[in-house]
Design goal:
Layout: H1 2-29, E1 42-43, H2 46-53, E2 59-64, H3 69-80, H4 83-86, E3 89-93, H5 99-105, E4 113-118, E5 121-127, H6 128-133, H7 136-155
Parallel strand pairs: 1-3, 2-3
Antiparallel strand pairs: 2-4, 4-5
């Protein structure tokens, strides 16, 4: 009798542990790291991006993907910037279209990529290599300042 009771309690305990760990895991993955970049300037298609670039105004387009780990990390830094700087950046979530076609059209290989267009031509870019692979420690320590400086330089 005691073995059956102990076995039943063990099964119930295992089920509770699985349920609790699943709930905890869901809460941890839905933290601020998954927050998307907050801007009022969202581009919804390649055609809209091309129109924005050809508008002859200086523009920064942030090519991103909602499920991209590097994009999520960059979003944390972008969202810490002053709203007046953030609002100068247009975000284009490329998963709404054929990713390979978008990458070929706008000449980038991966996300995140920020491209500064001046007079309808690419003038400068920040991409995954610069932001995360080559200078990981530096960017994590001074990311907002470096990013803010780069964005402010584009305003001038």
């Amino acid at each position: 009798m005691n073995k059956k009771l102990l076995g039943g309690l063990s099964i119930v305990l295992i089920i509770l542990i699985v349920i609790l760990s699943t709930n905890l895991s869901d809460k941890l993955t839905s933290n601020r790291e998954d927050k998307q970049f907050e801007t009022k300037n969202t581009i919804k298609s390649s055609d809209e991006a091309l129109k924005t670039i050809k508008s002859n105004k200086d523009v920064i387009i942030y090519y991103s993907q909602k499920d991209c780990v590097y994009c999520k990390e960059l979003n944390v830094h972008l969202n810490k910037l002053d709203s007046n700087i953030r609002e100068k950046v247009y975000v284009f979530y490329i998963e709404n279209e054929d990713k390979n076609k978008v990458k070929k059209t706008f000449e980038f290989s991966y996300t995140p990529t920020l491209i500064y267009y001046k007079n309808s031509k690419e003038n400068d870019r920040l991409n995954n290599d610069l932001l995360f692979k080559k200078n990981v420690a530096k960017f994590k320590n001074t990311g907002e300042n470096d990013l803010k400086q780069w964005l402010q330089e584009k305003e001038e």
